[in-house]
Every structure is written in C-alpha cells, then in structure tokens.
Specification:
The chain is mostly helical. The chain is built from nine helices and no strands. α4 packs antiparallel against α5.
Length: 181
C-alpha cells in the first residue's frame, strides 16, 4: 500500500475503534468524516460496518498478542512479567477501546484467538498463585478477574495515568491489596 493509503487505513481503524466504542450505532460516514477521509474510501476497504469492526478487532488482537509475547509470562519473574504486561496492555486498551465481547459473538475465529490469549493469562495468574505471590485463600480465577478489571479501570477511568504508573499501582494492588494489614 502507498504511504497515504496506510495513513488513511490507520486513521479509519483508530477512529472507528474510538467512535464505535462510544456508540456502536455510529455510521461509516461519521467515522470517515472524523478520520478525514471520504466515505467511499472506507467502503472500498470495508463494505459494511461489521467488516470494519472485524478489522478493528484483528488489530486489537494483534496488539494484545505482541504484548503477551513481550511480557514473557512464562520465562520472566512473575512480578516483572506482570508489570511489563500491564504497562504494555494499557495503551492497547486505550487505542482500541472496542468491547471484545461483541467481537467474540460475531467472529468465531477472532473469538478463538481471544480465548487462546485469555488462556495464556489464566496460566500466568495460576503460576503467580503456585509461586505463592497470591493469597492461597483467593481463587486464581478471582485474581484474574481482578487483573482484567484493574487494567480496564486504569486504561479508561484514569486516562491521565501514564502506563508505568498504572502498572506500579495495579501490580501493587493485585499482589498486596488495598487494605491495612
């Protein structure tokens, strides 16, 4: 693709992700206008809003896959891998704020990819529990749900919190809690 076509595609995908996260009924014409391209440009690449959404989900999944790979969830010390994962996944969540549950209902292949990524995180949290970094009386799936919620909260409710600070706070909260001891 030409450089301008790559820029246009990127603008459409990012704008589409942002607008569709806010309002799933947003039209292609609105996305095109906000992205600074003609709606025909969008329709040539994505004949339907569902096709655009599928492309957005693929980019989000690709980004999440890179984060999981670079976090070294199996090889690195748990706290280091957790911090790296959180620090890198927050920008992905902010850049691609679309709800993955919608994707999972609409696209079986994307759903399978997301499930594989989720399984990797489940195994990582179980590893943290097995190594004694999580309380023995807390189920690993509870800790995993808390990790997801903390990441989502930091990414979307605290947009001014930079990723390294958010990672510090999330890792501390997950591993140490918020109550007095």
């Amino acid at each position: 693709m030409r450089a301008d076509a790559v820029r246009n595609l990127d603008a459409v995908l990012r704008t589409g992700a942002r607008l569709l996260a806010d309002d799933p009924s947003t039209s292609i014409a609105t996305i095109a206008a906000e992205a600074g391209v003609d709606r025909r440009t969008v329709y040539r690449r994505f004949p339907t809003k569902e096709a655009l959404l599928a492309a957005i989900f693929q980019v989000k999944l690709d980004s999440a896959e890179r984060v999981l790979d670079t976090a070294r969830l199996v090889e690195a010390q748990v706290a280091v891998a957790l911090h790296r994962y959180v620090e890198d996944i927050i920008p992905v969540s902010r850049e691609w704020p679309v709800d993955v549950r919608r994707m999972m209902r609409a696209d079986p292949a994307a759903s399978a990819r997301r499930e594989e990524q989720s399984t990797r995180l489940d195994r990582f949290v179980q590893r943290a529990a097995d190594e004694g970094l999580l309380r023995a009386d807390v189920p690993a799936d509870w800790a995993r749900a808390m990790l997801d919620h903390l990441v989502d909260t930091a990414a979307h409710r605290f947009p001014l919190l930079d990723p390294p600070q958010a990672a510090d706070l999330i890792v501390d909260t997950l591993l140490n809690g918020v109550g007095r001891r």
